[in-house]
């Protein structure tokens, strides 16, 4: 549910950015306001959202749009890169207990986020 809401809001923002050749500060602020609201509605910590939007804004303002991308897609690229940095770009292995010892793994997340499916 949270990801669907975020996706819907981002798509609406990026439709507004379509057709522009350069990202202005006003364009980025409008997009980030929607991203910020969607993240807060998904119960993301306010301090994390604030740092995330600040980082995206610094990278996006005045950035020339790459060939083959429109400004909306460029913002998506920047947001995606920052989400990867925020959540961690490294993969770590679960340290399973040897023999018959029990390994305890706690799954936490929003209702409907896929915890049970992932565990199975």
How does this structure look, described?
This protein has 120 residues and is mostly helical. The protein contains 5 helices and no strands. α1 packs antiparallel against α2, α1 (2-17) packs antiparallel against α4 and α3 (46-60) crosses α4. The model has no long low-confidence stretch (mean pLDDT 77).
Q: Characterize the overall form.
A: elongated
Q: Report on the biggest sheet.
A: none
**Termini, distance in Å?**
20 Å
Residue share in β-strands: under 5%
Number of strands: 0
The whole-angstrom Rg is 18 Å
Low-confidence stretches: none
Order of SSEs, N→C?
Answer: HHHHH
The average pLDDT is 77
Total helical elements: 5
Content-based structural category: mainly alpha
**Overall helicity:** 55-70%
Name some characteristics of this structure:
about 60% helix, about 0% strand, mainly alpha, about 120 residues
Helices and strands in order:
Elements: H1 2-17, H2 25-41, H3 46-60, H4 71-87, H5 115-119
Helix pairs in contact: 1-2, 1-4, 2-3, 3-4
Task: Summarize the entry for a quick read.
The chain has 120 residues and is mostly helical. Helices cover 58% and strands 0% of the residues.
């Amino acid at each position: 549910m949270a990801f669907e809401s975020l996706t819907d809001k981002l798509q609406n923002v990026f439709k507004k950015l379509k057709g522009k050749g350069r990202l202005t500060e006003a364009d980025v602020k409008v997009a980030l306001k929607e991203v910020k609201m969607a993240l807060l509605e998904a119960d993301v910590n306010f301090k994390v959202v604030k740092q995330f939007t600040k980082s995206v804004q610094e990278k996006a303002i005045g950035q020339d749009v790459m060939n083959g991308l429109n400004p909306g897609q460029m913002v998506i690229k920047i947001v995606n890169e920052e989400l990867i940095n925020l959540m961690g770009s490294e993969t770590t292995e679960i340290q399973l207990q040897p023999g018959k010892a029990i390994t305890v793994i706690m799954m936490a997340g929003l209702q409907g986020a896929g915890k049970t499916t992932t565990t199975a």
